[in-house]
Amino acid sequence: MGRELKRMGAPFSQPLWSAQALIEAPQCVTQAHQAFINAGAEIITVNSYACVPFHLGETLYQAQGAALAEQAAVIAKKVAQNAKQTVLVAGSLPPAFGSYRADFFQSDRAFTILNTLYKAQDEYVDVWIGETISNIEEARVMARVLKNSNKPCYYAFTLNDEVSEQATLRSGELVSDAILALLEHNIAGIFFNCSIPEVIEQALRDTNTVLKQQNKHLDLGAFANGFTPIASDYKANEGSQGYRDLSPAEYVAFAKQWHSLGATIIGGCCGIGPEFIAALVKWKSDIEAL
């Protein structure tokens, strides 16, 4: 959503990020959602990712954070209801202290922030995504927020951007340990997001191993980014991560790997625009035609 708003020419700057359009030009948020739906998207995510103090600042968050998150949910719901195809709205529980930085995480404060966002969006969403989760404790806090939800709850982890024999979160913790930690909670599925496409294959393999050992079944999914690898000391409010040269056809090739490993919910994160979704939709249609 953020990079699509920027590409469209919507109001967009640090530190407000995708919240700036929500504040100054909400019609651009509608247009961005519509662009993905026109490409064939079946799930859109509420533009609440930046409705946290990290992006809004404490004063604006206290004054308008909940209202902005609710506004974002209302916008998404209206666009989905007007779509030609069935479109689900996913409520977003984002990182409370900035993307990728597990070292900044504070459990109690995060619960308060995320619970506020949960209450603001819940009336308007069909499913929930705790997204860009960098460490196991963050996942547990999101699970506490979603404990009593009667809607499908998904958890999307962001991975270290380095291919290895065991997939790890940004915190350095093993993906396998993260999956084990969530199995006792209200969980419909596991996703991997906002990581380079190359690292998601191993994460899915590790997840499948754990689920098989525990005799569990969960939905699996992936929505990678189009960034260059992210450094461990990334400073989210001090600049934009650079893009890599990644085509829709190349992205679909990665998606085919993920699908072969059980991923059934596949989309895109930062830099993966509507043209990528259109390519995924065509591939899906080709499969269904066989």
Protein model, in words:
The chain is α/β, with parallel strands linked by helices. It has 11 helices and 7 strands. It has helices at residues 2-8, 19-24, 26-38, 53-56, 58-81, 107-121, 136-145, 175-182, 200-214, 248-260, 274-289, and strands spanning 43-45, 88-93, 127-133, 153-157, 189-193, 219-223, 263-266. The protein has a 7-stranded parallel β-sheet. Strand 3 (127-133), helix 7 (136-145) and strand 4 form a beta-alpha-beta unit. Helix 5 packs parallel to helix 6, helix 6 packs across helix 7 (136-145) and helix 8 packs across helix 9 (200-214). The two termini are 33 Å apart. The model has no long low-confidence stretch (mean pLDDT 94). Residues 1-284 form the Hcy-binding domain. This is Hcy-binding domain-containing protein. It holds the Pfam family S-methyl_trans. It comes from Pseudoalteromonas issachenkonii. Its cofactor is Zn(2+).
Question: Could you give a quick summary of the protein structure above?
Answer:
45% of the residues lie in helices and 12% in strands. The protein has 290 residues and is α/β, with parallel strands linked by helices.
